[in-house]
Amino acid sequence: xxxxxxxxxxxxxxxxxxxxxxxxxxxxxxxxxxxxxxxxxxxxxxxxxxxxxxxxxxxxxxxxxxxxxxxxxxxxxxxxxxxxxxxxxxxxxxxxxxxxxxxxxxxxxxxxxxxxxxxxxxxxxxxxxxxxxxxxxxxxxxxxxxxxxxxxxxxxxxxxxxxxxxxxxxxxxxxxxxxxxxxxxxxxxxxxxxxxxxxxxxxxxxxxxxxxxxxxxxxxxxxxxxxxxxxxxxxxxxxxxxxxxxxxxxxxxxxxxxxxxx
Amino acid sequence: xxxxxxxxxxxxxxxxxxxxxxxxxxxxxxxxxxxxxxxxxxxxxxxxxxxxxxxxxxxxxxxxxxxxxxxxxxxxxxxxxxxxxxxxxxxxxxxxxxxxxxxxxxxxxxxxxxxxxxxxxxxxxxxxxxxxxxxxxxxxxxxxxxxxxxxxxxxxxxxxxxxxxxxxxxxxxxxxxxxxxxxxxxxxxxxxxxxxxxxxxxxxxxxxxxxxxxxxxxxxxxxxxxxxxxxxxxxxxxxxxxxxxxxxxxxxxxxxxxxxx
Lengths: 262, 261
Known about the structure:
The structure holds 2 protein chains of 2 kinds.
Chain A: H1 5-21, H2 37-53, E1 58-64, H3 68-74, E2 80-85, E3 89-90, E4 94-96, E5 105-114, H4 125-131, E6 132-142, H5 153-158, E7 163-168, E8 184-189, E9 192-198, H6 206-218, E10 229-231, E11 239-240, E12 246-251, E13 255-261
Parallel strand pairs in A: 1-10, 3-7, 4-13
Antiparallel strand pairs in A: 1-2, 5-6, 5-10, 5-11, 6-7, 8-9, 8-12, 12-13
Helix pairs in contact in A: 1-2, 4-6
Chain B: H1 3-19, H2 26-29, H3 35-51, E1 56-62, H4 66-72, E2 78-83, E3 87-89, E4 93-94, H5 96-99, E5 104-113, H6 124-130, E6 131-141, H7 152-157, E7 164-167, E8 183-188, E9 191-197, H8 205-217, E10 228-230, E11 238-239, E12 245-250, E13 254-260
Parallel strand pairs in B: 1-10, 3-7, 4-13
Antiparallel strand pairs in B: 1-2, 5-6, 5-10, 5-11, 6-7, 8-9, 8-12, 12-13
Helix pairs in contact in B: 1-3, 6-8
């Protein structure tokens, strides 16, 4: 930690206000170039606490930066994580008010629900497969609070890894009925295919992403409790959306998710 | 283009294939070459191969995905013929250092037909009715045109840049798999280099086979029962060198593995 408690509280308020007021800010590392990873997560957790104190419920967890290509590009060896809020949840087929966001983008993912505690260190893909209750298709809405999505890793961690919302499908499947690495997704915007991919784009296997989450949380003395909803990380690249866009994602074996931005 | 020129280009491409050499793009040498001319050049190239004892065992469509279209700057599909000397099986070694010029690998879904498909008028329903099974498949494309500087006429003339292809480890009936959403994972030397899904090929591999049947139908050619039809890559082209190995898995279908020597 390089930042004082006061500065962390101040930055948490600054970054959260950007979200609440839908006004982009410059990345915080511009003013605090020496801040470290712990500082970055401390700011994220302070934002989380601010929300909980106002009555917001934490609806789950999310992984970010889960593609090997993206990690290489950012010069890191581990992904990042954030939290999901109750107010960020949208129903399948929802009309989503685009003015809730600054410059929203969407990513196609698979989400899992756990039915056992996952505790690192040493959490592995086997523990995760044994702890997944079911799998659902999901779309994450990301919305960096930084101008033009220009950020570095520490700034984005502080900003809850750009988490802004998520839409889950209406179907669930048991993990043993699926082959997550080869599970294909097709993302369409206004009827046109814009992105495609398969589950292996997420750290080789979306369950490996959950294992990594458990191990990263263990470093903070935390665990993933049973009944946790987890967005495992983007299979597709992020696609910008604006008012009027109609989004549909079709997934192999687990159905589809759709939404309209109004 | 007159018949002599067509024959001459077909013969030249055949020599390139045999001697592992390339030529300047035909579209640079002949600015007014049409796709129909190119198709006739490809027939002459094919005739030389048949004279050499090769046998047609299938057809292919290529340049079907946006990724490949952008990479090659060719914005419509191409088509070509597959012969018995091009086919390999799961686990085989492919002699690219002796048999190919500038090879690149693609991941595809191959269709094995049980009925003829004769365009025009072939629909997706006809394709599904005529399909015995689908298989994971590598296509190793190659170009007899210098540095892959191809326009659509160049690649059609050059048998759709076809090289070799490798059929994978499983054959699945088309009613057992969702061909639009089935995912593809492409690995080179153990590293994931791309993922994709069936919809990458013109929205669906089934659309591709229908397009091929209808396009070849205009030239009086049909897709025949028993033939292998390559339906177009679902991932970007990837260059390979001797010593590389690749693995491909397709959700709900199976996988393919190949080593390059």
